[in-house]
Design goal:
single chain, Spore Coat Polysaccharide Biosynthesis Protein SpsA, Chain A, two-stranded antiparallel ribbon, 10 helices, 36% helix, disordered C terminus
Length: 272
């Protein structure tokens, strides 16, 4: 492993400016363990590859010849990384000083945890609801149809986004947004982190559910903080490509886990 303890993998597609800020923030965050950064680029045409080669020669660049989707890019990063810990980042993440060390320390002291996610803030410094309960049909309808806009504070939405929890305590959660998560290598003996049937969306939900079923814990840890300059493409129009991909992935996820008591598991966790 060349003495590298941590691999930071950033999956990029057409986000040159955000990617540059993300890489700079990783280097400036004060990581005390030997680490590497990998950028997996999904055939961007905006100069992202050229920027990495010119500005960050110490970063390992993995170039895909086509946009293979997030899950396949993550799996390629995992197979090529050298560290026992993998920090997956979207390029719209800005890493705060000390955040990575805090996540590493948490995994080190909690051997039953396979995935730990930091507290995420919006660009304006407000809390981002980054951990969620499992999906059900009512949740999908409220989140992905006009019903959610008509009833934005409905109890179904508030429970799903865990809005009535203060987010200052560490806790086990159903799943977390895939924008920033640290993984333990030994939790993936088959070298596959994400199900490649999901091109975009629900690969993070599926990942967390699979870990839970395998006996691992998925944790939210507010002792580490990062900023997520997040723009929900699937919420920007009545119908667009992002909404189509979200619908397709929801159908795949629902079919794959059709025999799982997902809703019951989620309610049990929200009772505490």
């Amino acid at each position: 492993m060349d003495g590298i303890e941590l691999s930071v993998a950033i999956i990029n597609f057409q986000t040159k400016t955000l990617l540059e800020r993300c890489i700079n923030s990783v280097f400036a965050s004060g990581i005390r363990s030997p680490f590497e950064i990998l950028v997996v680029d999904n055939n961007s045409k905006d100069g992202s590859v050229e920027m990495v080669l010119e500005r960050f020669p110490q970063v390992r660049l993995v170039k895909n010849n086509e946009n293979v989707g997030l899950a396949r890019a993550v799996n390629r990063a995992f197979m090529q990384c050298k560290g026992n810990r993998l920090l997956l980042l979207n390029p719209d993440i800005e890493v705060s000083i000390g955040a990575v060390n805090s996540l590493l320390d948490y995994l080190q002291s909690h051997p039953d945890v396979a995935l730990v996610s930091p507290k995420l803030l919006n660009s304006d410094g407000t809390l981002q609801y980054s951990c969620r309960t499992y999906y059900s049909l009512p949740i999908a309808l409220m989140r992905r149809t006009i019903l959610g806009k008509l009833f934005p504070n409905h109890r179904i939405i508030r429970d799903h986004l865990m809005m009535d929890w203060d987010h200052v305590d560490t806790r086990e959660v159903d799943w977390v947004l895939g924008g920033a998560m640290m993984l333990r290598r030994e939790a993936f003996p088959d070298q596959q982190v994400m199900d490649e049937r999901f091109f975009l969306y629900f690969e993070d939900v599926d990942l967390c559910l699979r870990l839970n079923k395998a006996g691992w814990k998925v944790m939210y840890y507010p002792g580490a903080v990062m900023v997520h300059h997040h723009q929900r493409a699937s919420a920007s129009a009545i119908w667009n490509r992002a909404k189509l991909e979200h619908l397709k992935s929801w159908i795949k996820f629902s079919w794959k886990h059709r025999h799982e008591p997902i809703l019951r598991l989620s309610r049990n966790k929200m009772d505490d």
